[in-house]
Amino acid sequence: xxxxxxxxxxxxxxxxxxxxxxxxxxxxxxxxxxxxxxxxxxxxxxxxxxxxxxxxxxxxxxxxxxxxxxxxxxxxxxxxxxxxxxxxxxxxxxxxxxxxxxxxxxxxxxxxxxxxxxxxxxxxxxxxxxxxxxxxxxxxxxxxxxxxxxxxxxxxxxxxxxxxxxxxxxxxxxxxxxxxxxxxxxxxxxxxxxxxxxxxxxxxxxxxxxxxxxxxxxxxxxxxxxxxxxxxxxxxxxxxxxxxxxxxxxxxxxxxxxxxxxxxxx
Length: 266
Ligand SMILES: NC(=O)c1ccc[n+]([C@@H]2O[C@H](COP(=O)([O-])OP(=O)(O)OC[C@H]3O[C@@H](n4cnc5c(N)ncnc54)[C@H](O)[C@@H]3O)[C@@H](O)[C@H]2O)c1
Description:
Shape: elongated
Bound molecules: nicotinamide-adenine-dinucleotide
CATH class of the largest domain: Alpha Beta
Order of helices and strands: EHEEEHEHEHEHEHEEEEHEH
Distance between the termini: 31 Å
């Protein structure tokens, strides 16, 4: 079987480098090019030095010389959306890991993917453990009335709380069918110590040098607690999910949101 040809958008970024290396290790995939606004050279040397592929800061001009089956995007939201508008019209499937894709963006992507009969997978989190944690948290939510989330990230993370923590709290209350019970603290002597609240779930954000990305969901009931925790130790955690998405997206038409669908966890 011919390998699936892949172009990485954001190829020089932290995730882009991990993804290009992983594609090169997989015999079912072939990296055919990289795009990054930071590109200063015309070639990307593959991590194993086996070959060079075209590199450009301009997606449209690169698409004139290489014809990928899939574009994988790890850039910024605006760049991801403008790339999607270009490549879907050319019949190229897309896997997006970039954060900040809005509901309006998703609507547009869905329409474009259907109109052009191609597949798009958008996943805010490609770490399998994190996806499974969310699935278990949705089950726990049905049986517990109290819950809090602690999310822990490196000190340079721009936003707080994490998008994953917000989505987890919302999905938990959706699964429960109502808000959790939020115990009011009579006197908060230091403002903010009870965290931010979403549907009765308190979210606490730790930002600390040395951490990467972790999330703990704690359920409480009389006489017991249940803790679900996922720790990200390196960016390698995203790779199996991304590779799975590349291999799946070529078999689909339309938009798939979240890795849950590919894992049959819905
Ligand atoms: N879905 C997931 O599981 C997952 C996992 C990790 C990171 N992310 C997200 O992926 C994105 C990238 O993360 P990162 O850590 O690699 O960031 P990064 O800053 O290291 O890399 C982003 C790359 O995109 C490039 N870029 C920016 N604008 C561009 C444009 N207009 N055209 C072409 N290239 C452009 C940058 O030059 C940079 O090299 C972020 O949004 C991050 O939150 C998602």
